[in-house]
């Protein structure tokens, strides 16, 4: 639906002063690095470039989605001389380039199949299609069109199930596309048939198999201009979307807003480098790999897929696991007397996720430890619950739960046999131990 844009090729990221200030305060490791790398003379600048390998062509590549281990890329394209778009996938090669894409037959139909979205556990696929069974639209007397509707598919361990249409509370005579699902909240783009300039982002909540009536997201996300392709970060604390509102760098730009306690604040353009004189849209944030994937149309051709990434740094957690076969982390934080993880715990846990994705045959035991305050019985229960909570976080990021065991030692194995705050902080830790087969 985007049109008329020009391009650039490879960038070191620079952002506006206001965007830099905003990025700096975000409690997400990549976005912190994203902001810091924009400073002058940074030794590790953010790199913005077309994805490497065999994905981008003279045809359109649009709507990217990444698997939890970031080794499979889904997107849609109209290739050869075909009349309709299809969903493709490409595998990451050992040299870091993307292999030749292949069609995903079980997801595709004889008509347009677009906008693949992959859940962060890798088990649910959403897409947009005007295949047989989609809602028909009366365009004028005697003329009927078929709208694009949203469909859902699940992974059975070997292939994707046949996509099934979402209910009529979601799918209408209007166009529905660009789905994004986090937890029970579905975001998608909707606009009247043939009028993409009226595109707005809608939200619906799932309860069991039922979906609530979609409502448009509030201003200033939706405004008088086209707003499309919304996507959350993993915590739901940052919303990314594309808009052609005035004040950008040209055409559609990528924007973000903070989200806290159900309210949005601090609208920011992602800045020059990510945005350019051409149009950018459809961004995915891969938190574990600290990579943005987004789309830009290149001059003289159609859309290509780009990345914005932080150069890989030394991974102390991975090195320790390789050398000692275990690691103890005291920076995995929980709410007080609770097994609920705090957001700042996601940074070290994502390093564990990364290690497990890169070593798919490894099994691991997660062991919770508490400090010496409180009752023995409560601490034993709490340590077990916290280990289970960490396991569920790793599973939600695509780690097979059968590779993970949990245990809780409560206060029985303190690092320091004291109850002052510093000693208690070190005793409250989570241990990760490789299981030898």
From TrEMBL:
Pfam (any one): PD40
What region holds the OmpA-like domain? 322-437
Which stretches of sequence are listed as region Disordered? Answer: 403-429
Q: Does the keyword Signal apply?
A: yes
Supply the InterPro entries for this chain.
6-blade_b-propeller_TolB-like, Bact_OuterMem_StrucFunc, OMP_bac, OmpA-like, OmpA-like_sf, WD40
The organism's superkingdom is given as Bacteria
Q: Where is the composition biased (Basic and acidic residues)?
A: 418-429
Query: Entry's PROSITE patterns?
Result: OMPA_2
Keywords, comma-separated and alphabetical: Cell outer membrane, Membrane, Signal
Q: Where in the cell is it found?
A: Cell outer membrane
Keyword Transmembrane helix found: no
Which cellular component terms (GO) are annotated to the entry? Answer: cell outer membrane
| Leader peptide range in chain numbering | 1-38
First-listed, main subcellular location of the protein, grouped into a coarse class: membrane
Q: What is this protein called?
A: OmpA family protein
């Amino acid at each position: 639906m985007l049109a008329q844009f020009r391009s650039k090729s490879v960038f070191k990221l620079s952002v506006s002063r206001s965007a830099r200030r905003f990025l700096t305060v975000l409690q997400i490791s990549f976005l912190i690095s994203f902001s810091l790398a924009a400073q002058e003379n940074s030794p590790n600048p953010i790199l913005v470039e077309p994805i490497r390998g065999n994905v981008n062509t003279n045809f359109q590549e649009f709507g990217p989605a990444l698997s939890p281990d970031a080794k499979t890329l889904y997107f849609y394209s109209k290739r050869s001389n075909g009349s309709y778009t299809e969903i493709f996938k490409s595998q990451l090669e050992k040299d870091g380039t993307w292999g030749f894409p292949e069609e995903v037959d079980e997801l595709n139909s004889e008509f347009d199949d677009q906008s693949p979205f992959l859940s962060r556990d890798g088990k649910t696929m959403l897409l947009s299609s005007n295949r047989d069974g989609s809602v028909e639209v009366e365009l004028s007397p005697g003329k009927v069109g078929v709208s694009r509707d949203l469909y859902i598919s699940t992974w059975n361990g070997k292939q994707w199930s046949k996509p099934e249409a979402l209910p009529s509370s979601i799918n209408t005579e209007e166009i529905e596309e660009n789905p994004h699902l986090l937890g029970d909240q579905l975001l998608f783009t909707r606009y009247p048939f043939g009028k993409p300039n009226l595109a707005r982002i809608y939200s619906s909540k799932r309860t069991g198999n039922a979906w609530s009536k979609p409502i448009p997201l509030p201003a200033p996300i939706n405004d008088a201009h086209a707003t499309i392709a919304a996507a959350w970060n993993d915590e739901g604390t940052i919303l990314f979307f594309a808009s052609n509102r005035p004040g950008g760098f040209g055409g559609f730009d990528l924007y973000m807003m903070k989200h806290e306690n159900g309210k949005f604040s601090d609208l920011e353009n992602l800045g020059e480098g990510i945005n350019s004189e051409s149009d950018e849209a459809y961004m995915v944030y891969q938190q574990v790999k600290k990579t943005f994937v987004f789309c830009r149309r290149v001059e003289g051709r159609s859309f290509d897929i780009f990345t914005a990434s932080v150069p890989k740094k030394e991974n102390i957690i991975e090195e320790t696991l390789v050398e000692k076969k275990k690691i103890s982390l005291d920076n995995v934080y929980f709410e007080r007397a609770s097994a609920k993880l705090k957001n700042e715990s996601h940074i070290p846990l994502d390093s564990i996720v990364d290690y497990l994705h890169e070593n798919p045959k490894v099994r691991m035991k997660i062991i919770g430890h508490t400090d010496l305050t409180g009752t023995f019985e409560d601490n034993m229960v709490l340590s077990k619950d916290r280990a289970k909570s960490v396991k569920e976080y790793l599973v939600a990021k695509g780690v097979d739960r059968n590779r993970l065991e949990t245990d809780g030692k409560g206060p029985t194995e303190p690092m320091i046999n004291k109850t002052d705050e510093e000693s208690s902080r070190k005793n409250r830790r989570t241990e990760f131990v490789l299981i030898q087969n």
